[in-house]
Amino acid sequence: MLRILRLAWAIWFLLLFVTGLAILYVPFLILLSKKKWYPLAHSLRKFWAICILYPSGLFPIVYFEEKPDKNKTYIFCSNHFSYLDIILTNLCIPNYFNFMAKDELSKIPMFGIFFKTIDISVNRQNNKLSHNAFMMAAERLKEGASVMIFPEGGIHKNVPPMAKFKAGAFKLAIENQIPIIPVTLIDNWKRMPGGGFENGLVPGRMRIVVHRAVDTVGLNIENKDALKDQVFRTIDEEFKKWNS
What is the DSSP letter of 214? Predict the structure, then answer.
């Protein structure tokens, strides 16, 4: 019975997701037609997220160790245990930012428009295409847009714990002298078990901790592993504190 209820909840969630995207698709097309309108498209995605989460019984709660300055540029790095992570971070982080995520998302009908415009798709199977994606991210940072990266490189089957972080986000931060803000997603792995819909959704709190910025000014590429380990520890320790 419980499995049936969870699957029914998943269907309701998908219905809200697809219906909302269909209704907002033309406004998204317009706002994504020019780069100067991307921040407005990002704001519209926040509204879309509200329309999905609250009617689904998913309630975001955000804790700031230190609130990011909306006038500054950051690289946000988060653990990645669920497909809900994109929706939650988009809603709860106050800054305008572009996602970097696997290029499979660009192939999803309708939803793929984001990863062909405002967001950056990464083909991790092709070194040249992956490099080009990070070059594009560097350009966005120089233009004043923050970037959200999931350093694990995708959702792994047995979560938690976190998978080993890839180096790209930390090289990008050091090369551009951009501060990194670690982000811990506490509950998403419980809300959408296994990262997918096979077990349905579990309604409840979706807590997120936005940590203090980690400065990269003065660091060089030799410091990337130490920076990567520092951000990993910050997220991992916070996650375990709430899930012990």
Answer: B
The two structure tokens encoding residue 71: 């006038």
Structural domains for the chain: 2-243 (3.40.1130.10)
| Average pLDDT value for the chain | 95
Helix (DSSP H) and strand (DSSP E) numbers for the chain: 7, 7
Amino acid at 221: I
Q: How far apart are CA 168 and CA 14, in angstroms?
A: 32
Cα–Cα distance for residue pair 159/76, rounded to 1 Å: 20
For position 199, what pLDDT does the model report? 65
DSSP state of 124: T
Structure-token match 């990645």, residue found? 80
Q: pLDDT tens digits for 31-88?
A: 999 999 999 999 999 999 999 999 999 999 999 999 999 999 999 999 999 999 999 9
State the average pLDDT over residues 134-145: 97
Give the span between the Cα atoms of 163 and 33, in whole angstroms.
36
End-to-end CA distance of the chain: 28
Residue corresponding to tokens 């951000």: 231
pLDDT digits (tens, 9 = 90+) for 193-224: 765 666 678 899 999 999 999 999 999 999 99
12 CB-contact burial (10 Å; exposed 0-12 / middle 13-18 / buried 19+): middle
Residue with structure tokens 């009908």?
109
